[in-house]
Write a structure and sequence with these properties.
Number of domains: 2
Structural class: alpha/beta
Number of strands: 10
Distance between the termini: 31 Å
Helix content: 40-55%
Radius of gyration: 20 Å
CATH superfamily of the largest domain: ATPase, nucleotide binding domain
Strand order of the largest sheet: 3-2-1-4-5
CATH architecture of the largest domain: 2-Layer Sandwich
Order of helices and strands: EEEHEHEHEEEHHHHEHHEH
Strand content: 15-25%
Shape: globular
Number of helices: 10
Length: 336
């Protein structure tokens, strides 16, 4: 008998629902929230309100597109955390209610774990073997973990302040770019000279990251040059983006390579919205033979927040009969 899992993702500002059948995606729908662009970042209260408006139609469309009846679902997997508490509450409350109504198991999912295990979705190409180094890079997180098995994950490094995606967005705002700025910076970087401007890389011990110093240095540099030439940013936008992205990629790369050497692991698996950055992909792919490792990047549709990755973890947990209870609440901070 086939196993149908409904995944629901609502950790930030995207409302997503997906139906998987034995690891194969039948539907994966995402409702974006454009309202945050005018604020230059996600407004938590507005995000939770939008989730309330979007979640029923998104789930209904996901089930319809999967060409099944809701009574065929075997379980519901939902994002318990980490994320914005108000947003998480909408998804968790809906999932619990539907679980009770259909009398099927409820499965809680760690959002960060799902970003990495998205690689095991059927259409994701070659699957990594355990153990591997997992690197989750997004607007809210920057982490390095050792993944020994589907559900055995050890955190070995993380950002001490800003996340990598947050750094892209905030530096983009300094240059007058719209939110989210990561994709725009990536696009402009392809037109600029990545070595035109040099920015200091922070010195942080171990496998941890820090991006706040780079962000501040970037702001000070722009302010200084703009006093000399008020059109500096506009004229140098491509070179600024290229130089900024180059520095961020180098910071990321050095720690990941260090983690591979310290753990004697030869595979690195990326997940999260920033994992579609062309600079990061190029850097790691070009250096595979040099540093003797293999890198894995998810399909574009599984990089940003999506419910297919939640449903994938749900499927793996369903096979282990690892079910949750309605008493467990959403958690803004949800550790491995």
């Amino acid at each position: 008998m086939p196993t149908y899992i409904l995944g629901i993702e609502s950790s930030c500002d995207d409302t997503s629902a997906s139906v998987l059948c034995d690891g194969k995606v039948l539907s994966n729908l995402v409702a974006n929230q454009e309202v945050h662009k005018s604020y230059g970042g996600v407004v938590p209260e507005l995000a939770s309100r939008a989730h309330q408006q979007n979640i029923i139609p998104v789930v209904k469309q996901a089930i319809s597109k999967a060409n099944i009846n809701k009574n065929q679902l075997n379980a519901i997997a939902y994002t318990r955390g980490p994320g914005l508490l108000g947003s998480l509450l909408v998804g968790s409350s809906f999932s619990k209610s539907l679980s009770i109504g259909l009398d099927i198991p409820l499965i809680e999912v760690n959002h960060m774990q799902a970003h990495l295990l998205a690689h095991f979705i059927d259409d994701c190409g070659p699957k990594p073997s355990f153990p591997f180094i997992g690197v989750t890079i997004s607007g809210g997180h920057t982490q390095i973990v050792v993944v020994k098995d589907y559900f055995e994950i050890e955190l070995i490094g993380e950002t001490l302040d800003d996340a990598i995606g947050e750094t892209f967005d905030k530096c983009g705002k300094m240059m007058g770019l719209t939110y989210p700025a990561g994709a725009i910076i990536n696009e402009y970087s392809n037109l600029g000279d990545s070595l035109k401007y040099k920015f200091t890389k922070p010195k942080v011990g171990g496998l941890n990251y820090s991006f706040s110093g780079l962000k501040t240095a970037f702001l000070r540099f722009i302010e200084k040059e703009s006093k000399i030439n008020k059109d500096f940013v506009q004229k140098e936008i491509n070179n600024l983006c290229a130089s900024l992205q180059y520095t961020i990629v180098e910071i990321l790369y050095e720690k990941v390579i260090l983690s591979l050497k310290q753990t004697d692991i030869s595979s690195v698996v990326f997940g999260g919205g920033v994992s579609c950055n062309s600079g990061i992909i190029t850097k790691f792919k070009e250096n595979e033979s040099l540093e003797d490792y293999v890198s894995y990047f998810p399909k574009f549709e599984y990089t940003t927040d999506n419910a297919a990755m939640i449903a994938m973890v749900g499927y793996l947990k369903y096979n282990n009969k690892d079910f949750s209870s309605i008493e467990k609440g959403a958690k803004a901070r949800y550790l491995y």
